[in-house]
Amino acid sequence: MRVVVLGGYGVFGSRLAELLVRDGHDVVIAGRSPGKARAIAEKLCCKPLALDLRADPEALFSGAPDVVVDAAGPFQSYGRDPYIIPRLCLDHDADYLDLSDDAGFTKGICVLDDRARRNRRRLLSGVSSVPGISSAVAADLCAGLDEVLLIDTAILPGNRAPRGTSVISSVVGQLGTTSRVWRGGMWRDQSCWTDSRLVRLAPDLARTARFIEVPDVALFPEFFGARSVVFRAGMELDVLNTAMRLVGAVRRRRMFAVTRRRAEFFRRLANLFLPFGTDRGGMRVAVVGRSGRAMIRREWRLIAEAGDGPYIPAVAARALIRRLDRVSPGARPCLAEATRTEIEAAMTDLAVSTETEESPYPTLFQSALAERWDHLPPEVQALHSVQDVESFSGTAKVTRGNSLIARFAAWFFGFPPAAEAVPLTITKTRTETGEIWERNFGGRVFRSYLTPAPVAHRYRERFWLFNYEQDLPVEDGRMRLPVRRGWFLGVPLPGLLLAKSDSREYAQEGAFHFDVALGAPLGGGLIVRYRGRLRPDHCEPSLGRDLPES
Questions:
Q1: Local confidence band at 79 (pLDDT 50, 70, 90 cut-offs)
Q2: Alpha-carbon gap, residue 248 to 212, rounded angstroms
Q3: Which of 86, 90, 158 is nearest to 334 (CA)?
Q4: Which of 138, 136, 137 is nearest to 124 (CA)?
Q5: Contact 18, 42 (CB under 8 A)
Q6: Of 2, 157, 392, 516, which is least packed with CB atoms within 10 Å of its CB?
Q7: Whole-number mean pLDDT of the chain?
């Protein structure tokens, strides 16, 4: 098969060309630089093709290719006619693949679907690590689940991996911006390069990753029917992660365009650190879902050694070209077009290892309640079944105590003022160690941090400098939350100084109800009481997220 690789002398394009040569294809290295194309072509024993797409895009087809792979990018900057190459592929009866990591571009290729079907041609966008590989793996991990609650993907390259200008442009171009991300059944605003998590690929390989937008974020919610979809990336060296945060802070204050010249400047700056770190990196795809009544987590981990990490973005294209005659005609994002087995088979000649693991994944309250969990009504269980981020909205009546100690405690913890009916939204986030609860009473926000307790049927909740251990008795479908122990700055509090809690959660008329009353120690009376009802927030994945036109 004759394959033209546009950008075939770049970081990923050159590695794709090498893999295709290994598979016996007739490969042409195409690009603007005759010298670079010739150098790679000579190294791989294939053909070079120098061309200027703006001046003469037809030259791409001078050798009558069967497939054109665009590995150049950046795809978010392709100008007024972003799909000129796939359009020309239809004119010249060729298939088209690209390594796009831009959500708008990847989804937008569907505008050519009708014509591609009529011509019996395949135009697939995003044939790379994301969403090409990530979707193939996620489809395998989701198989057999009754409900998909979370798809969580992370890519962690080694510091010595080469960096292309297009990738730098794409990543830096997101710093300081906000994306729409599907979490907890609704679209939420998420600042790029935030929400850090520690991702462990092996006992001796763990790195911090942060949110960044890739096609998965826009495409997976509807395709997989997942309740949450998250993608994170991280670099090996903390100094580079810190630099990313600083650039993001600057762009938030004064936005500037990431031109090719500026992207090249950032690339050269990052390359000063190439002697440090390792050439070891990897990728992780995790799926959390429900199978029957059990919550399980399935995780696929890939580790690339010996500098073979930069080959991974080329693997999906290699796998698809191997089976292109079995791919359905049409123009669409590359979502589960290959199987996980086919993806892994396309890596057997690389220094890459993969493994898959499945384990129970109960929530904080499922673990703490143990056998008592089954005695809770579904409405209460739903509020404590958070696997990523969930929010619940309703109204509350707030009553405040009048004693001096009660007023001071309410001010200190940030409790809301008295009100007959105040809008309330509770947002819960599952973390590596527990949960974060954010309560928003009509704009008055206070948070608490929940972790497991070493004692059965209990959990701990921290309010700033105070930490309380609470019991979880369940009777007649109602759960109470009395305080049993407390600490201030880690020092145990005597019973006289322990806050009083008369709180309960229950279901009524198909909705979750709560009644929380907190009393001051030393006979200080009521601090605050808030009671009301909540319902889960949600919307359809296809609504509420507008992708920019490419």
A1: low
A2: 12
A3: 86
A4: 136
A5: no
A6: 2
A7: 94
Residue 548 has pLDDT above 50, yes or no: no
C-beta neighbour count of 513 within 10 angstroms: 18
DSSP 372: G
Residue with tokens 């809008």: 423
pLDDT tens-digit readout, 275-334: 999 999 999 999 999 999 999 999 999 999 999 999 999 999 999 999 999 999 999 999
Q: Are 180 and 190 in contact (CB under 8 A)?
A: yes
DSSP structural state of residue 272:
T
Q: 550 - beta bridge partners?
A: none
Residues 6+ apart with CB under 8 A from 339: 136, 139, 140
Q: With 60 as the cut, is the pLDDT of residue 549 above it? A: no
Q: What is the dihedral of CA 27, 29, 35, 38, to 10 degrees?
A: 0
Residue 87 CA to residue 96 CA, distance in Å, equals 9
> Taking each helix axis from N to C terminus, what angle separates 165-172 and 238-253, rounded to the nearest 10 degrees?
50
d(CA 549, CA 76): 10
Structure tokens belonging to residue 200:
């462990």
Work out the pLDDT band at 550, boundaries 50, 70, 90. very low
CA distances from 155 to 140, 207, 280, 283, 527 (A): 18, 10, 12, 4, 47
Residue 76 is given by DSSP the state: G
Compute the distance between CA of residue 267 and CA of residue 261 in angstroms, rounded to an integer: 10
Q: Mind giving me the DSSP string for 168-236?
A: HHHHHTTTT-EEEEE-SSSEEEEETT-S-EEEEEETTEEEEEEE---HHHHHHHHHH--S-EEEEE--S
Q: Alpha carbon 522 to chain centroid distance?
A: 47
Q: Tell me the CA end-to-end span of the chain in Å, nearest whole number.
A: 31
Hey, what are 86's tokens? 């796939």
Strand, helix or coil at 333?
Answer: strand
Hey, how many other C-beta atoms are within 10 angstroms of the C-beta on 255?
Answer: 9
Report the distance separating Cα 216 and Cα 503, nearest Å.
41
Identify whether the C-beta of residue 517 lies closer than 8 Å to the C-beta of residue 400.
no
Residue 2 structure tokens: 């004759």
In the block, tokens 């693949």 appear at 97
**Burial annotation 206-221 (CB, 10 A radius, 16+ → b, else e):** ebbbbbbbbbbbbbbb
